[in-house]
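Hey,
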Amino acid sequence: MLSLLTFVARHGKLGLIAGLVAGIALPGLAGVLRYWIPEMVAFLLFLTAFRIGPRDTIESLDALRRTATAALVLQLALPLIFLALLALIGLPLSPLALAVALMLAAPSVTGAANFAILLGHDPAPALRLLILGTAVLPLTCIPVFALLPQFGALASVLQAAARLLAVILAAAALGFALRHWGFPTLTDRGRRATDGLTVIALAIIVIGLMSAIRPAFERDPFELAFWLAAAFGVNFGMQLLAFAVLRARGRKDAVPTAIVAGNRNFALFFVALPPETTDPLLIFLGCYQFPMYLTPTLLRRLYDPR
């Protein structure tokens, strides 16, 4: 079994692509798995926390300060700047503009640390951004929501953020506890086996997240192509911008932070939007999985640590 998981880890990028293909080719399976996404995400967080360990995650108080600053810039400053530019130019808050605003205001996706691992970089900064970014979300989203009249009750999003934070903390705590007391020193083979299991979890999760893609293609392939191009532009554009800025400043966490900058859990906000607003955004959410899961493949040369 360990040999099989090690093999999967060695070909992790192909595993993620296989998940994307399955999400398109198996709409029935996607419809079933979408109901198990919360449980699968919790298991993924558990594996990530176990793989990194509590010591490397915490690192130092200075690392926590940098993480807090990054979270405020990514989740508060960027969406406010984006909305201010829309108002300055005089553009309406179209469905695409709303999707971009939500994406910029959201915390990291749960798989960002795993993408850093697949690219050969330290995943701890991404995990810190996931935990701390979700913790401060109830505060950072309030100014953004004030500029988004499409939203429903603010309390519903705050409750969703609190539930997500509870899941993240519980899964991380279990992963840290197992690593600390059960495997204080994780061997290279054990680390690779954990990476292989993580790739399998990521591939299964994306199948459920893409349940809206096949129906959208059958309904209007040109509209789907528009949302797919927009998803790639926003995701990769944010990653390239963040990486260029952080690399110019000599930041060692440039790659994991850039990955988080482009890969956000904006689906969290859907609980506060009326159904007539979420319909086109569900297509964007499905399209968003393509640049997300293709990050380790298409941006490998940019992020190559060698």
